[in-house]
Amino acid sequence: MAIREIRVVPDPVLRTPCDEIKEITPAVRRLVDDLLETVNDPGRAGLSANQIGVSLRAFSYNIDGKIGYILNPVIEETSGEQYGDEGCLSVPGLWYKTRRADYARVRGIDLDGKEVVLEGHGLMGRMLQHECDHLDGHVYLDRLEKEERREALRYMRNRQAGQTR
C-alpha cells in the first residue's frame, strides 16, 4: 500500500475516460489498496483511479468515517437537486457552488466480483456523481457556469506557472 500523488488539472489522464476492469489481477488489488490509503486523510471524500494516474474504472471514498471502494461503477439513478460547495483534489484550492442531484445510486463490483450498490443523499450523493464524472473523463469545473469555469481555469494556469490570482 502506498499514498499516491494526486494528478492535477491539466493532466491529460483526468480528461481520458477510464477503461472497465475486466479481470481482478494483483495490480487491481494493489490499486484498490492505494486508493483506500490515499483517500484515508481528513477532508478527502472520494478519489478516482485516474486521479492517481491509473485509467481504470475504480474509486474509493471516505464519507462520515466509512471508507470503501467500488470497481466499474455506473450511475443507475439520480433524483432531487442540491446546489452547494464542491472541491476536488485535482483542482486544489478552489471551491465552487455546483449543481448536482441530491440522491445518487451506483452499481459495480468488489475485488471478489460480487455486486456492490452504493447510494446516498447530500454529500454521499455528490461524491458518487463527482467520482463517476472523473471516471468518464470530466472534472467538476465542467459543470460550472461559463464565467466561473473561465476564472477557475485561469487560476489553474497561473498556479501551474507559479503565480497566484
From TrEMBL:
Its cofactor is Fe(2+). It is an enzyme of class 3 (hydrolase). The keyword Metal-binding applies. The active site is at E131. Fe cation binds at C88, H130, H134. SUPFAM superfamilies: Peptide deformylase. The keyword Nucleus does not apply. Its EC number is 3.5.1.88. Binds 1 Fe(2+) ion. Keywords: Hydrolase, Iron, Metal-binding, Protein biosynthesis. InterPro entries: Peptide_deformylase, Peptide_deformylase_sf. CDD domains: Pep_deformylase (cd00487). It catalyses: N-terminal N-formyl-L-methionyl-[peptide] + H2O = N-terminal L-methionyl-[peptide] + formate. One of its GO terms (molecular function) is peptide deformylase activity. Belongs to the polypeptide deformylase family. Removes the formyl group from the N-terminal Met of newly synthesized proteins. Requires at least a dipeptide for an efficient rate of reaction. N-terminal L-methionine is a prerequisite for activity but the enzyme has broad specificity at other positions. This is Peptide deformylase.
